[in-house]
Amino acid sequence: MIWVAIAISVCLGAAGQIFMKIAMRAAGPFPGLIGVVDIARYFWGAILSWPMLAAIVSYGISYVVWLGVLSRADLTLARPMVSLGYIMVILYGFYAGERMGWERVLGIVLIMIGLFLVVRSGARV
Length: 125
Fold this sequence. Notes:
Elements: H1 2-27, H2 36-47, H3 50-72, H4 75-78, H5 85-96, H6 102-123
Helix pairs in contact: 1-2, 1-3, 1-5
C-alpha cells in the first residue's frame, strides 16, 4: 500500500509541475520590471488560469498523501522515489517539443539507476 501512496504523490507532484508549465506557457514570457501593475496583471492572469488551479490542486493532494507516506516509510527510501517524477516530466517534454540534449537524458538515466539501487536496498530491509 505504501508504494501506491508514493506513486500517487509522485505522479500528482509531477502533474503539478506540468500544469504550471502549461499555465506559464499560455501566460507568455515574463514582461520584465516594467511596472507593478503590469507585473501584478501578468501573475494574476497566470494564477487564475485553469492549468495553474489544477497545479495547486495536484500539489495539495500530493502533499497530503506524502504526509501519509512519511508517517509509514523511511525517509531515505521514500524521498528518492520523488525522482520518478522525472519520467513524467521527460514524457511531457517530448510531447511539448522541448529540446533535450544527450547530457540531460544521460543525467536522468543515471538518476533512475540510482533510484533502482535505493529501491533494491529497501526491498531487503
